[in-house]
Amino acid sequence: MSDDQPTIALGVLDGQHVAFAMLDGEILFQCTGASEEAARAAVLARLHPAGVVDVHSESLAPATGASGAAADGADAPVFELRGGAAAARGRPDGDGFVVLAGSTARAYGTDVSRDRPLRDQLLARGVLRPAADPKLLVFSQAWRFSSASQAGGVVLDRNCSGPNAWRIPGTDQTLRDWQKTSPGAPPRHEEPR
């Protein structure tokens, strides 16, 4: 983590959701709100997109191997997921589903999202960054998720059935359909839901 990037923290204090940004141990500002979304939105509105941070988490891994090689599944077609103004592109691989850099995600979804903790980690790490459109976040790098459903949940900020939601652009063919009919498709993992 560079010294000139703030760390964002989210939490609950006395029943209020709190978000704050710190730089070199000094609190730059803090916001409280009735909801986690309100507090998070207030922090993101005050940060320049390049100011979203890198925090350490062993559970997060970019979509490249230790050697920096591209993710497996490069022969798989690119799938698309749209929701609101968000438009994400990705492809399955043997270890899950990779969302490509430059894809966009909804900045605000529903109050029910099993993938919200992971989404918040990706925001804090700078993998997801605020876009010019305040309704969107952008993937600053490709990212491998454990499943298409987890990828869709982060993109849409709500629960998602990935195999049915991701589609080949310009067709009605879903990821599920493609996996059933393509002999070279990466193995279909059971959705961990």
In a few lines, what is going on in this structure?
By secondary structure, this protein is of the alpha+beta class. It has five helices and ten strands.
Characterization of the model:
Helices cover 21% and strands 27% of the residues. It is an alpha+beta fold. The chain has a four-stranded antiparallel β-sheet with strand order 4-5-6-10, with helices on one face. Strands 1-2-3 form a three-stranded antiparallel β-sheet, with helices on one face. A hairpin with a 2-residue loop joins strand 4 (79-83) and strand 5. Residues 163-193 are annotated as: Disordered.
Which terms summarize this structure?
single chain, 193 residues, alpha+beta, four-stranded antiparallel sheet, three-stranded antiparallel sheet, 5 helices, elongated, DUF4357 domain-containing protein
Could you give the topology of this structure?
Elements: E1 7-13, E2 16-23, E3 26-33, H1 36-46, E4 79-83, E5 86-93, E6 96-99, E7 104-106, H2 116-125, E8 128-130, E9 136-139, E10 143-145, H3 148-156, H4 162-165, H5 175-181
Antiparallel strand pairs: 1-2, 2-3, 4-5, 5-6, 6-10, 7-9, 8-9
Protein name: DUF4357 domain-containing protein
Region (Disordered): 163-193
Organism: Azospirillum isscasi
